[in-house]
Amino acid sequence: MTKNNNIDTTRRNFLKLTGLGGAALCLGFYFPADGVPTLVRPSELSESEIELCPWIIINPSGKVTIVNHRAEMGQGSYQSVPQIVAEELEVDMKDINVIFAIGNEKKYGGQITGGSSTIRSSYKNLLKLSATAREMLIAAAAAKWNVPITDCYAASGHVIHKPSGKTLHYGELAAAASKLPAPKEPKLKKISEYKLIRKPLKRIDTPLKTNGALIFGLDKRIPGMLFASVERDPRFLGKVKSFDASGALKVPGVKRVFKVKMGYYEYMREGIAVVADSTWAALQGRKELKIEWDTSGFKHWSTPEIFETQQHVLRTQEGMLFKTQGNPNEILSGTAKKVDVVYQTPYQSHVAMEPVNCIAHHKGDSVEIWGPIQAPGWIQDYVSKQFGIAKDKVIVNMTFLGGGFGRKAMMDYPHEAVFISKEIGGPVQVIWTREDDATLGPFRPGISYRCEGTIADGKIEALKFRMAGQNNDHWRGGSKTKANGSTSEGFLKPYYNSIKNLSIADVLFETSIPTSFWRSVYASTNGFAYESFIDEMAHEAGKDPLDFRRDHLQEERCQKVIDKMEEVSGWKNRAKNEGYGVAITECFNSTVGQVVKVSKNPNGGVRIDKVWAVMDCGWYVNPDIIEAQVEGSIIMGLGAATTHQITFKDNVVEQHNFYDYPLPRINEIPPIEVFIIDNEEDAGGVGEPALPPFAPALTNAIFDLTGKRIRTLPFNLGAV
Fold first, then answer.
1. 3-state DSSP of 307-348
2. Closest CA to 8 of 227, 215, 226, 279
3. How many CA atoms, within 13 angstroms, populate the side-chain half-sphere of residue 21?
4. Span 454-460, average pLDDT
5. Which residues contact 280 (CB under 8 A, 6 or more apart)?
6. Which region holds residue 319: left if phi is over 0, alpha if psi is between -120 and 50, else beta?
7. E strand or H helix at 596
8. Which of 256, 499, 538, 624 could form a disulfide with 545, with the two C-beta atoms 3.0–4.6 Å apart?
9. Rounded-to-integer distance, Cα 587 and Cα 589, Å
10. What is the DSSP string of 209-274?
């Protein structure tokens, strides 16, 4: 694949690429107001709409260009999307080029790269679009040769006439194909016929990343750009009382120093920006600032108080019901033999390898933004409202992201960059330091869970979950009288069929600490509490933990996951002095089961010997990418469970960088085996669903080995 990630999908560039005079075949999906995609060609749209469709373009040379409306942040869409197109279009991967689209969710549909949604939301459209183009090219060739279409087939970017062996490459057919009617229902391949999909093809972006050729947000440069670093109030709601910029202005290269703000939904964070002609000068000038903050008017929290308060509300409040069936309260209150425990998960930072950054150019009546961005449509909407500029005049250009995990879906850092650009009257790149990235948030919320349950006849008779933690929706103005919509996230739906008396509730808890999405969102915390408690119920029933889940998860796909977990881990042949733990969670329409094996560490504590992960994500593209995402999720889950957390003292984060927020080292990573369930169900997510089951599988294994139940994260493996 040719790297071409600097092309902006403006109408001018689109016309250059497509040659709308009839030289190219261009097909796309248009997303009208009702959100139902319709197959279209340029001639069917207005000029403003032409540049806004996700297109497959075949030019006279035979080169295929895909205008991709989603971001690439390491999850593999830069490989998976062209792999889908190449399969049905019958072209070689080397002949496909990908460019990023500008932000416009009105025409593209949802553009947020989150919720592990890129493939599962678009693969059917991509398959149909590619097959449509292939059939039109075959029809064009058949007409040119004056032969039946059935005598022709496509392969490697060519149409071949079977009886004679004659060939034409796609570039020779593009113009003629562009004039033919598009088939409404092109014939799609059966999974058994795939030659590229479901094959572990090597990622085409890996060489470009390792040789430095790709342009990440931090690499992007535009003419006349200055650089800014901002000292922000470490307490989210604090204000600037006064500041002395004299020291900063003496640093060579520093141009200006002024007060700025950045919006997080309806809230504003204040700071002082240092603008310079280089990143280094801006950072050095920032060190010379003297700022006095006003931190009055809001409660200052510390970590012990947060979790003590959460436990108090769980003991004293029933909360807002999210799900209820049967009579769990009556059954639980009528028995003395119940399990009633509390689980806790900590706040976490995102710490993507590429810290937050953004370029903005406020041009008066328009704004243009460049950077590592997960949600261009959200940013367009927010910037439009904050600066009174029409949404279609806010142009958002996506670069490659060096990790996102939800952080780069926020609007605060682009808003701040636009604010600074407006003040200086020119383009600026705002750089966040690693310390900024780690300490300023937003964070994954720390949450406490009260779990109650009782057993009858070897099965769960009643189950009651209550969670107390910050609701991310409240930052977006969501209702505080309704349960968090993610209260059950991670909990497998088939449990509802087997547990007749069940309730899940959200107990309102708020702080002045900003929170938001973190990889797998609430499933990462819910999964730990809920699947750990299922294990406690299995112990209470005197049942094997995997068999206990098999009894309660009767849905066929869950049974196949359990069968595979049992087979690959050797579950039935577990040896003495080894601990085995299991957990199964659902996240973004995928189910993942994990088995973790632990043993005593001769140096103290326990060591993780191996992890087996079984994923049912339905229809999928590239098993190698799935394996990488599962491994990455498990490693991230290991860090969140055992090595790092965000804590607060007087509302200020106590961690700063990797030296006190340590990520797992390579020598701490256990062997991981990944297994994919083959089926033809609709596609689920891949990038996030393997994170939630790891922590409960690990702590359940430790219980199996030591008899010690771990209910609070993080914990030290060496001290167990």
1. HHHHHHHHHHCCCEEEEEECCHHHHHHCCCCCEEEEEEECEE
2. 215
3. 3
4. 97
5. 253
6. left
7. strand 590-600
8. 538
9. 6
10. HHTT-S-BGGG---TT-EEEEEEE-SSTT-EEEEEE-HHHHTSTTEEEEEEEEEEETTEEEEEEEE
DSSP code per residue over 146-195 = T--GGGEEEETTEEEETTT--EEEHHHHHHHHTTSPPPSSPPPPPGGG-S
Closest C-alpha to 231, from 432, 496, 87: 432
When pLDDT is cut at 50, 70 and 90, the band that residue 105 belongs to is confident
> Comparing 74-88, 91-105, 364-378, which segment has the lowest mean pLDDT?
91-105
| First CA to last CA distance, the chain | 49
pLDDT at position 58 is: 85
Is CATH 3.30.365.10 the classification given to domain 303-347+443-719? yes
**At the topology level of CATH, where does 11-199 sit?**
Aldehyde Oxidoreductase; domain 4 (3.30.365)
Q: What is the pLDDT of residue 36?
A: 61
Tokens representing residue 572 in the block:
């039935």
Q: How confident is the model at residue 31 (pLDDT cuts 50, 70, 90)?
A: low
Q: What is the pLDDT of residues 116-139, one digit of tens each?
A: 999 999 899 899 999 999 999 999
Q: What is the dihedral of CA 370, 375, 381, 385, to 10 degrees?
A: -70
Exposed (0-12), middle (13-18) or buried (19+): which is 159, by Cβ within 10 Å?
buried
Q: Do residues 562 and 553 touch, judged by C-beta distance below 8 A?
A: yes
Decide if 11-199 and 223-297+351-439 have a common fold. yes
CB atoms within 10 A of CB 203: 18
107 confidence band (pLDDT: 50, 70, 90):
low
Structure tokens at 198: 């479901």
In the sheet that 590-600 helps form, which strands lie side by side, from edge to edge?
579-587, 590-600, 606-616, 672-676
- Element of type H or E holding 106: helix 105-108
pLDDT band for position 61 (50/70/90)? confident
* Mean pLDDT, the chain, integer: 92
pLDDT score recorded for residue 12: 46
The closest alpha carbon to 332, from 211, 202, 466, belongs to 466
The Cα 1–Cα 205 span in angstroms is 8
Q: Which two structure tokens, joined as six digits, stand for 418?
A: 């636009």
Give CATH for domain 223-297+351-439.
Answer: 3.30.365.10
Task: Say how many C-beta atoms besides its own lie within 10 A of residue 180's C-beta.
Answer: 15
Note the pLDDT of residue 380: 96
Q: Are the beta carbons of 158 and 170 closer than 8 angstroms?
A: yes
Q: Cα–Cα distance between 491 and 505 in angstroms, integer? A: 13
Mean pLDDT of 86-113: 85
Q: Indicate the domain borders of the chain.
A: 11-199, 223-297+351-439, 303-347+443-719
Is residue 460's pLDDT more than 80? yes
